[in-house]
Amino acid sequence: MGNEAYSAPEIWQGHVRDKRSDVWAMGKIIAELCRRVRLPTHGLTPTKVIESLKDNPYRSIVSRMVMRCAAERASMAEVIGEIRHIEAGAGRQNAATAEQKMEPSTKTLAAGCFGKVYKQKYKDNWSALKKVPAHVITKEQLSRECRVYDKAKHNNVVRLLGAPWLEDNKWHIPLEFVFGEDLETAIFNVQKSKIQLTSSVKATIITGMCEGLNFLHSKDIVHQDLKPDNIMIEHKSNRAVIIDMGLAKFFQNGFSSAGNMGNTAYSAPEIWQGNVRDKCSDVWAMGKIIAELCHRDGDGVCSRETPHG
């Protein structure tokens, strides 16, 4: 039983209605809601549904819901996850609109021995565009960094916005731009910081940092270079975002995909003894960051712990 207008292709062939046919019907409903146009009952193909959405942000997930092959359709759990991701992105974009209007077209965000990061437009939106001289990074290193980003899709980990490209003998890597400040500023430069580190704000930041790191570790990714500079805090929501995955590596069953690199100030005791950086050393670094964050009092007073001892 069921209506004809929202019947999946397999139903017209005599198949039994199941969860996948429900997903197909929901996909058509979402498409009609987005377009405010009733789609035809007969002869409706996945291509026609997708084309009806054009540049709509829901096009990607709807395309997975109306696959002709029922077995290839997304589950509703996957649909909900993707929709939440779309909504979160839209919310961050709207919250950042006022800041965007006043910013210059290009602004240097950070610089180091591996290159520079600029605030620059990418596909009509702001990005943190990382530019690395081609002689500094090998294709293998670039490929590893992209694989890390591909596996590390989480709200508390910076996102790769698109494929890197080579221009002016530099690799251009477009990353998510976070409208906020780094935790280094929030903890140690209260005069410049726009964040009030109340107990509830600290709790939000700590939760976000830990959830991001836990997700990385669940994918067998070791960051290697955790420090307050590499954690951004979004001004609007206090969302913590782990950034700078350039030294991150896959580490599983004692096998490491990259060398033993990272900063000294947040190195665990075993690293000073020559041990390899792993998930445990990441946890140590995060513990020190949390201690420094908690130690900053209401007057913005916080002293940095020394690297050794």
Automatic annotation (TrEMBL):
Gene Ontology MF terms: ATP binding; protein serine/threonine kinase activity
Domain Protein kinase residues, every copy: 1-88, 103-309
Domain of life: Eukaryota
Gene Ontology terms describing biological process: mitotic DNA damage checkpoint signaling
SMART domains on file: S_TKc (SM00220)
A Pfam family the protein falls into: Pkinase
One GO location term (cellular component): nucleus
InterPro entries: Kinase-like_dom_sf (IPR011009), Prot_kinase_dom (IPR000719), Ser/Thr_kinase_AS (IPR008271)
Protein name per UniProt: Protein kinase domain-containing protein
Source organism per UniProt: Ameiurus melas
